Structures are given as structure tokens and as C-alpha cells.
Amino acid sequence: MKANYIFEKLKKSILTSQEFRTRTYTKGDKTLHVISLETMCNDDKIAWYVTLPLAQTSDFEEKSLENCLATSNLVDIPNVDKAKAMLANGNSLVLLMDSDFAKAVDTRTTLSRAVVEPPTSVVVKGPREGFVEDLKNNVTLLRKRMKSEDFVVKTLSVGKYTNTEVAVCYVKSIASSDVCNEIIQRITSIDIDGVVDSHYLATYLQPKKSVLFRRVGYAEKPDIVAAKMLEGRVAIVVDGSPIVLTVPYLFVEDLQNVGDYQINSEVTTFSRFFRVIAVLLSILLPAVYVSLQRFNYQIIPLTFLVTILNATENIPFSPLAEMLFVIIMFDILREATLLMPQAAGTALSLVGAVVLGEAAIKAGLLGAPAVMIGALSGIGLYNMPDNTLILSLLRLIVTFLGGFMGLFGVIIAMLGVLAYGVSLDSFGTPYFAPFAPEITNDRQDAIALKPLFKRKMRPQSIKNVNATRMNQDEK
Description:
The strands form three sheets. This protein has a five-stranded antiparallel beta sheet, sandwiched between helices. By secondary structure, the chain is of the alpha+beta class. It is built from 15 helices and twelve strands. It folds into three domains: about 1-105, no CATH class; about 135-250, no CATH class; about 260-425, no CATH class.
């Protein structure tokens, strides 16, 4: 009998742990076992959904048990592995000896923080709900916004020891089935001890290893994920993580801010142009400064050149060493600020930047122009907050080449980065779309943002089966 076999296997393996509780019920010649995990199950749910119904039933027949168990989520247990997985997730097992009746009842305890606005996605206007660490709550937040029969949720289990639940969510009438199947296949083929955060899965979802660019999106707000699914993307929700993954992912998404769609489209376009300029200046400004000082000083206007010479004439370092020192100093301050407690970290960043910069200038170790350029470059990186570390690495590389090869090295470095980015894709979507290749339709929400009523078509760069977003005429 299936129930006997499952019970004997569990008895030899996991029921020896003191966390597991087994209670036996007998009526007539029928014996029934209820197995639960103390640390994962709610005692009140066990009492209401299992214990009381069993006490009130007249017999332990299979049909009677199915009718009496007070839950809408009664899951059949076909084998021992399924039984272990259900126990580990907080379900209680009901096993009727000498029969095939082996069921799991949802008695999970709820250990989750309240749904609040995430600290990294603060908005002035717009929804303030953010994902939490509970998969069921996160899927519920998505379901609130996707009240359609086409909204599909497929639950998988990943991790040899953690058996982490992973939900793959998409809109079947929009998303490409090939992309959905590829994502599910990749997740099911993962062989790892455990998944404790969504970033573990992001590594496996990368089509190819990439050092400079990530090709999996991260989101902490359900409204953002819902909007991405309406464009044909797939969302991956991981139990225990407030970060939801979205694929395919484009580089241009790093320029899009959570509050862009709650304000005027013209203002958003203006803001995005500033972000592009700020990021480019952050990467190029230190390298150009070093290049002009070492190789191409004749390009600098005379008045500005005299100012730089007066500020740097007694500096003991070369322009390259000076700029690298400034960049590394600010990077150390940034890392220390992130690792320190919030109150101390704020004081450390302000005092450290001001005091160290001022002291270095007065001591004659650094020039004021280098400190100013390093500070401006560091601030500009936060226009792409999710890519700050990667952009900082890119800035160092470009600065090195600029210090050894001048402006020619800077140009070569940027052309290499562009060529590398153009060669990447994310589940069949060109990473630098809609600019490389050029897709006119998708430029409606790239750097420039068109009003909502003009964005009638879904992005063509993202594989989908329904290209039309709206059919009404422009008003």
C-alpha cells in the first residue's frame, strides 16, 4: 500500500528528528497517521483543518476523509520525495494505513513582514506596495493586478536541500511559449544544494556569462513586474526573496525609473537624457582628464590649462596615479557606507568625503580638479543604481587606457564595450535594442517616452505572440 510505504520510509529517514510530530488515530480496524513539522506548521490550522474534522468523522474510509478534511487545498502524495517536500514547506501529511490515501493539508505558518514600500524603489506618486519574502504573498500581489485567466503561474522546486519554491509567471496570450519553456527548462535543470535568494537563479538564467552587463532584470514592486509581463516578459518569483526576476532584459531598462510613468512624458524624456549624459560623463570624465593632461594638453583652453597647472604643479603623483587614487578612495567610502549601520554610514560618507578630500588637497597629495572630477564621476554613477559597481569597474578600465594611450585609448575602450554589448542577447532579444539593431517601434519607450495613448504596439524586440497593445484611435 502507498501510505504504508511512505510512512515507513519517512520513519527511517526524517521522522527521527524531534521537529517532526506524528499523531496516530484509530477507528475500528483503521489506523491513520498525521505528520507535521513543528517549526513550519501552525497549530491552530492543524486543529481546525485536521484534528477536529478527524474527531468528528464516523469512519476512516477514503471518501469520508476527503469530505471531512476542512481545506480546499488537499494535495495527493504520489511518492516519498513529494511527501518530504510538502513536509518541508509546512504541510501536514494524512496517511491512512493499508490504503492509497496519502494527502497533504496546507497548515503552513505565516512568517512574513508587512507589505511596505521597498527602500530602493521609492516613488513620489504611484503604488507603494513592494514584494516581501513570502512567495504566496508575492504571487497574490501580481494576481491583484493581473485579473485574467491568461495569467499563468507554474511552481517548481529547486535546490537539493532547500527545496525552494520558484513560481514562473507570465501572460500566456502575450508571452512567447518558446521563451517560457526555455526558462522553465533551465530552472528545472539546475543542480545546486540550495537557493536562498533570487540572485542564485539569475546566474543560471544568463544566456552567456557576462562580466560588464547583466541580462536579468530585478524588481521589488508588483506594478513594475505586471507592466513588464504585459510587454511579453516572464517573471520569476523565488520563495524567501523580495526581488522578482524578469526576462528578457534590455540595457535601456536601466535608464527607466520607477516614477517615469507617473509624470508627464516630456519631463520623463528630459530626465532620461540627463541620466544618459550623467552616466557617460561618469565613465569618461576621469579618463578624458588624465588623457588631456598626459597626451593631449594642447586641446585644453589656455585659461583652463593654466588653472590646472597651478593646482597640480606640486602634486607628487602622475595624473593617472592621482586619478586612480581619487577613484579608489571614493569607492572605499561607498563600500564602507553600505556596510556600516545606517546612521553611522551617512555620517561616514559625508565626513569622509569632505574631510579626506580637503585634507588631501591641503597636504599637496591631490589636486582640487582631480578631487572634483572624481566626486562628480562617483555621483553620476548612481543614475544607474543597479549597475553602480559594474560602471565603476568600467570607469577604472577606461581610465587606465586613457592614462597609457590618451584619447585614442578612451575611444578604443568605448568601441570595445559597444561591440561587446551588441553581441549579447537575452532569450533571443538583442541586448542593445532598440538602437542596435534599430527598431523604430521600440524607441517609443527607450530614451524618449511617448504618451501612453501613442504606445499602441508592444515592443518588437521582445518575443511575444500578441503585438497589439491597444486598438483605439488616437484622441
